[in-house]
Amino acid sequence: MAEPEIPAEALGDYARILSEVASTGRRLTREELESRRLLGREAAEAGHQLRALVGMHLAETRTAWPRTATASATTADSVLAAVEQAVDAFAEGFERAQRLTVRREEAARREFIDDLLYGRSDLGRLAERATRFGLRLSRAHAVAVAAGPEAYTETDPVPRNVEAALLARFGSRKILLTTKDGRLVCIAPGSQPDVLRYFAKQAHAATDGGQVAVGRPHQGPGGVVHSYDEALDALDLARRMGLDEPVLYASDLLVYPVLTRDREAMADLVRSELGPLQKARGGAEPLLNTLSVYFDAGCVAAETARRLALSVRALTYRLERIRQLTGSDPSDPVHRYTLQTAVIGARLLDWPAKEL
């Protein structure tokens, strides 16, 4: 699209100022400087380019100077000083207007992101605002969230580097990258899972091994907040369950919300199956951790002992102690499912740190 044509009035009374300066050698008055700033602001608001406007000033200087200036070096110095003053004041007004516009755009973008991720706005109005930021909320979208060792803002190097990598790889695809509560957030069309996979790879590296969670694609304006909540829940689940995978997919973790849907029933299972472990020397946590690692290792004693830095004999003693206290044998398939479900429930409910 062609740039808007700059009218001659954009320079105001610049030629008159040069003429008077050439005749008297005076400096620009306070009123003239303020007028130049106002002209700069109006030019910025009209969408003109500062480079072109400076060029117009210089062209007007070349045109006006031969008619007004003498050959005196003092006069030439006065005119050049006036040109510097006039252009500097004009550029100052232009840049102030641009900074104000940028701040307004940033505020509007942040308000939109907050409304989008919290679902606080009217969905129809939200969909209309989304087009301004490159999203078509009538379609399915998915959200990925990356948590690093520190909190990030949009101006920090980490999110800027990740955004640059995404733009270099995917160009103008409908992607929105932002930060929220110190985490990196990427919103992408649900039909393009490669975008979030690449974001996860870049974010994991940029955050020095931070963990990334990816929500499922969901349709419509409310789909973004739904997917965002799933990603946050996956990160929280990873913390409670000790999951250390670099990338977590909400679709792979659906069993955990199912297990805790009836919280009272799960708490009752944990108390009845694992409560007796609290009688052990050192409390329940060491034996609970042993069970967790044992199940993660596929119930293979040698691998479990290696992960726990124990001898197989010491591990066997722990498993026997668990059997004595709970009445359930971890190596017995009949008991294993109940024990493993109880262990998962304990992690989800943060037991024994919290009373059930």
Automatic annotation (TrEMBL):
This is DNA-binding PucR family transcriptional regulator. It comes from Streptomyces fulvorobeus. Residues 287-343 form the PucR C-terminal helix-turn-helix domain. Keywords: DNA-binding. InterPro entries: CdaR-like_regulators, CdaR_GGDEF, PucR_C-HTH_dom, PucR_C-HTH_sf. Belongs to the CdaR family. Gene3D superfamilies: PucR C-terminal helix-turn-helix domain. Residues 119-237 form the CdaR GGDEF-like domain. GO terms for molecular function: DNA binding. Pfam families: GGDEF_2, HTH_30.
